Input
Amino acid sequence: MEDLYINFTASITRLNKLVQRIKSYEISKYGLQPIHVSCGYYLSKNPQGLTAKELCELAMEDKAAISRALKTLQEKGIVKYLPRGRNEIVQLTKEGEKLSAIISERINSAVKAGCANITDEERKFFYNSLLEISNNLIGYYQKLIQSEE
Output
């Protein structure tokens, strides 16, 4: 009998570890870490800037990790802070935009390599299935938490 738990968790864990290794390899050339890839990616997709909280939500990282990452990126001249009401927004600098373009190119190469030998239809089905599984597990987790209250 197929062990669904092992197939699912081992595959997801393996994919995550591979993505982290690729990020680490690609970004280490710039003296940065994988979390900086996520920050740069989301900031490049939001040129108006993001608050640290918004970046935490998009990158699915905790506040302390994002704060440390942004501090490093600011020290390297990759991001800048601008006041916005009670909060500050973070934006890429011109240097950050250049690095982000390089990162985007490498991301596209990695995604293309990962999707080799897979049709567009298969890829769409896979992503839709993964999203559905993720949403189902969010609902399951929320029910678990609510049942304890």
Remarks:
- The radius of gyration is 18 Å.
- Residues 22 and 110 are 8 Å apart (CA to CA).
- Residues 4-117 form a domain with the Arc Repressor Mutant, subunit A fold (CATH 1.10.10.10).
- The mean pLDDT is 93.
